Amino acid sequence: MDYLLGIDVGSTSMKALVYDLDGNVISQGSRPTVSVANDPNHPNWQVYWPEHIWDGISSAIHDAVSKLDDPSYIRAAAVTGLGADAVPLDEYGEPVYPFINWICTRTAPQYDWWLENVGLNQTFQVSGWQPFVWSTVLRFMWLKENEPEVAKKVHQWLIIEDFVNYKLTGKFSTDFTDASPTLLFDQRNLQWSEEMLAIAGIEKDLLPTPQPSGSLIGEVTSEAAGKTGLLPGTPIYQGGHDYLVGALAAGAISDGKVLDVTGTWEMVIAPTSQPKWTPEIQQLGLTVEAHSAPGMYAIWAGGTAASMLEWYKDQLGSEAQRRAETGEGDVWANLMNEAKASAPGANGIFFLPHFNGVTCPNLDPKSLGAFLGLNDTTKRGDLIRAVIEGLDYAFLDMLSSLEKGAGQRAEEITAIGGGTRNAFWMQNKADIAGRPVITLEIEEATALGAAMLAGVGCGLYQDLAEAVNRVTKPGKRFEPNLKSGSIYAELYEIYKEIYPALSKVNSRIYNRFRV
User: Fold this and answer.
1) How far apart are the first and last CA of the chain?
2) Would the pLDDT of 38 be above 90?
3) Minimal CA–CA distance to 270: which of 410, 444, 449?
4) The CATH number of the domain where 146 resides is what?
């Protein structure tokens, strides 16, 4: 038996999935990823504890491996994850501070300093990225400025999936896709930027040498084998940032394809063999960075997505949850049935999906979410439908920017991620975008993409093209409803006026309550 292990460190769960070479799941395990506030005076300061990450992912791996007749069936493994969040290790390889995670706002002062002293254009020209409040370099700077004694102990910084690789193999490593969101990576030369390191005051020796996704890192140590159930000596290959690794499972590895990754974040991605870092692309709020596919780059737009539906479920979906608890459907089916009861346009309710700011087409980390148009006829169904519609208007914003930046029109959109299981959401996305949305029959695309990299690395696939041909299977096709589309075309024009109208007041609220 030849199996591959894909390991995914996500923002809501940590997963380990064993696949056969055709992309079928053989076994799996998972544990929740828990974000905690580590300072009672700052409830918006959020971290992941390193021991929680390693204990959780090693337990998930152990669960998946224990279901096999023989762990030697696993020929190789690779790790993917949420990226950007990094942990500092001392000279003994022990964490000296937790992961400052992506929803933490403590780096807002460093973000403001970066904008003033480095700026959008210089950042983009070197790193290919827009600077965000959660950009990794700002965590480095925050620790030096606020915990100087701790900072003196730092021997190595590791991105969250690279930390898992270290615990598995004892090797410090990273890849191009995980180096990119640090803002310290030179996209043209595919190495650390001496210019950006000097600006940030970071020594290059504190960062592992970047290499392509799919590169061999090392082998599972005896200690890691004891925790995970993997055999000592199992080869571990470099995975990468989750959305670019997930793109492999969808076959988005060549020019001309547009991929929508719908999960906690929504990413709209176009692979390209001809990267450009023009001011026009930067002004569209796009990122241009190395792809996990060899020799390719990706141009993308992104923003938070499904986390807002989770928020709605937890805070406003009590009736749907109550019905599910008494055996009336599941909670998500109940919520979508409520949304279906509201007509397109949600009875005049609009939702601005900026719970974590906005990146495209406007870069503004201080923008906040909002419901607009509330009145005494508003029902629960209007609210949940407005959330879906707001997310899809934001998707159309990102798609339009991507098409301008990439110089191509997407005649259809391939979609992957947990959100694709929500048929109502996918149909609404097709209606608002006016293009077919095609889902794929693949399980956990990011973990599968990592397994594909491991399979190419160990020689079970000749290359990624062969891997794609074996694992990618068509799913459902959602055709746009022309009647709904005409309604949404009018309402989208209203939606585009909401952010400019609220930006100043949202900034004041953010400065008062979020920092």
Assistant:
1) 53
2) no
3) 410
4) 3.30.420.40
